[in-house]
Amino acid sequence: MPATKPLRRTLAVLAALPLLVLAGCGYGSQAKDDGGVEIAAGAEKIDGLDSVRVGYFGNITHATPLVGNQKGFFQKELGATEAKYAVFSAGPSEIEALNSGSIDIGWIGPSPAINGYAKSEGRNLRIIGGSASGGVKLVVNPDKIKSLEDVKGKRIATPQLGNTQDVAFLNWVAERGWKVDALSGKGDVTVVRSDNKVTPDAFQSGSVDGAWVPEPTASRLVAQGGKVLLDESTLWPDEKFVITNIIVRQEFLKEHPKVVEAVLRASVDTNEWIEANPDDAKAAANAQLEKDTGKALPAGVLDPAWESIRLTDDPLAATLDAQADHAVEAGLLEQPDLNGIYDLTLLNKVLKAKGEPAVDDAGLGVK
């Protein structure tokens, strides 16, 4: 099984942004508990641990935990150690839950992971694996914007000041030689910070001319008549960049490495099953979304969103580091110290057992 795979067949990294809140990039309920599937008869607890608390977003970019929860992959590997799930709608709330010990392991975007790592001065979390790449697009009103050059002078939405997509868009604008004040969003392009939940309404009303957004927001805009002008993946080497990581509390990792290894093994198994069963996996992800958020995605949104996400066991660490540099260049933060943010020891152990190559931490691993 390759380390990165399409679903069928990200990441700006902000360390310590004062006065900024780094939100997640999707839809979902806030910290909603989910009991998961039943524990198999005769199963045994790992290290005698009663439960492991797992967090993720009600968002298609979190396909691995959605499917892993729905199909019982995590519970199967955990035996009688119960997988307890909490569903979040924003990165900061998940980081807060991790910091307080309310969850042990979580799927989360790079920006809140880096912010959480920096704010704790490298003491509270580690990135232990990858989960998803891609799924970010520049969608525009085709009546107003017909080419990339037409973006100049227009109003473009991003999810939030300093979040993953905001920094990516600011970097793209800078590479074209256009000037934008990062904090105010004013310049050759007007950057409008708009929550993903309300961006479709803003787009439909004409108050923004386009948006640099993740899935499924991008596909929602296309369903409203928008046109994909640019897929962010085309800007990256091999068209890969991290959009979702797996993080863990350092204390939990130290005390319960066998449990963490079981969760990582389940994550790798889930990705492998999704690769082999794309249609069933898509249905499973949408069923879990409906359970978690109260609303499934319509086919016209789900299908293109699913196609644009790539699952990956590899955390694509070099792309995280690059996006940190982009945030620095945009003037949104001082250079963060990311050394030690990764610990891929257990993931590489799982991959080796499957005959797969090790993944790299780009020199940012635990020494």
Give the helices and strands, then pairings:
Blueprint: E1 4-6, E2 32-34, E3 51-57, H1 63-71, H2 73-78, E4 82-88, H3 91-100, E5 105-108, H4 110-119, E6 125-134, E7 136-140, E8 155-158, H5 164-175, E9 190-193, H6 199-205, E10 210-214, H7 217-223, E11 227-231, E12 242-249, H8 250-255, H9 257-276, H10 278-293, H11 299-308, E13 309-312, H12 317-329, H13 345-353
Parallel strand pairs: 3-4, 3-5, 8-9, 8-10
Antiparallel strand pairs: 1-13, 2-4, 5-12, 6-12, 6-13, 7-10, 7-11
Helix pairs in contact: 1-9, 1-10, 3-4, 5-12, 7-11, 9-10, 9-13
Structural features, described:
This protein has 367 residues and is of the alpha/beta class. The protein is 37% helix and 19% strand. It is built from 13 helices and 13 strands. The protein has helices at 63-71, 73-78, 91-100, 110-119, 164-175, 199-205, 217-223, 250-255, 257-276, 278-293, 299-308, 317-329, 345-353; strands spanning 4-6, 32-34, 51-57, 82-88, 105-108, 125-134, 136-140, 155-158, 190-193, 210-214, 227-231, 242-249, 309-312. It has an eight-stranded mixed beta sheet with strand order 1-13-6-12-5-3-4-2, with helices on both faces. A five-stranded mixed beta sheet has the order 9-8-10-7-11. Strand 8 (155-158), helix 5 (164-175) and strand 9 (190-193) form a beta-alpha-beta unit. It starts with a strand and ends in a 14-residue tail after the last helix.
